[in-house]
What we know:
alpha/beta; Rossmann fold; six-stranded parallel β-sheet; two-stranded parallel ribbon; 12 strands
Amino acid sequence: MTSPAVTPITARLVVTGAHGQLGRALLALAPDARGYGRAELDITDPDAVRAVLNPGDVVLNCAAYTAVDRAESDVDAAFAVNATGPAVLAAACAEAGARLVTVSTDYVFPGDAEKPYEPGDPTGPSTVYGRSKLAGEQAVLDLDPNARIVRTAWVYTGRGTDFVATMRRLEGERENVNVVADQLGSPTYAPDLAAGLLELAARSDDPAIPRVLHATNAGQATWFELAQAVFAGIGADPGRVLPCGTADFPRPAPRPAYSVLSGKSWAAAGLTPLRDWRAALNDALSAISD
Length: 290
């Protein structure tokens, strides 16, 4: 299975959260899109949002407050970006005749499942971050009947401070690295997700596509398995990655033990399934070393 090809789009694309890892990946694949970071557009300001929208635009909302632990004590800021922002975008898109695709997260689920989550499964976030993202989802569904929500998980590029980048850095700094082995999820390479979102954007007026979808690279892994794969991918000994438990790394926000997202809804809508996470990771590491 290969990464989805970049789908030509006739509508003008507007990308919010353009300076984040997913926003940058989108703009790399769609350089003609109009990208806005936090400094260029306050998505909680209805007048500012209305001013940048035209009828027929497709808005890909990647703006998010993603500091999961900090959100526990920074509740207002998390809800402003993750709930109020999507609500403002949804209302403005409905008014302007624009289409909205907003990105959400596996953290809207309780994290105690034993099989991959489907879009219609009961939600039940246990963190401020998850509750703020779920509030944003609900507002979008209420305010814009044509909007789509795409939940994803464990997004990385391998650069900066994401998990893959951190493992690359620690490989050079430590003899061994302890990594949690009792949390299972869906590692997702940002450029693969970006290509999938562009394919969805090209079909944003298709009523056959469900309002809520899941998109991650295929397969599942623990953080420990992902870290081992990173070490192996850069030519290091994966045996230097040692398993540990969630209890060994207490955090302000509880992490879900199980957050694998099912891709059935994405494939059933006729969208190209994202490739296996290991193939994506290999490409990510190759791109970094080039």
